[in-house]
Amino acid sequence: MRVSGVLLIILIFGHLFVNLMLGEGIHGLDFGFVAGKLASPFWQWWDVLMLWLALIHGANGMRTIVNDYVTHKGTRKVLVWALWLSAGFLILLGTLVVFTFDPCIPNLSDGSVLTEICSAQG
């Protein structure tokens, strides 16, 4: 928990700095910005690591709360299983979204940078 907490602080503040402080700040956040970030393997792994650590860290914290406050053994077991299953599902789903994201799927005809990139790819 301590290691994931420290790593999460670094990842989250790095994420916030790049998204909000560099470039146009919050006004520059749009589909094109996200598509550009997710086109880079570095940012894909950054976001996936942040997702994995946040979900595991959060699920483990919730497990601790369930173990502390739920007294019935059967209910505790069901809740802990539900926590880990939901965390696992969200990790799987989030990972698939990050690594299979294709910005060229929407019909882009507004003359944006993505229109040029997508038309050049084929």
From TrEMBL:
Keywords: Heme, Iron, Membrane, Metal-binding, Transmembrane, Transmembrane helix. It is found in: Membrane. Gene3D superfamilies: Fumarate reductase/succinate dehydrogenase, transmembrane subunit (1.20.1300.10). The chain crosses the membrane at residues 5-23, 43-66, 78-101. Its main location: membrane. InterPro entries: SQR/QFR_C/D, SuccDH_FuR_B_TM-su. It comes from the Bacteria. This is Succinate dehydrogenase, hydrophobic membrane anchor protein.
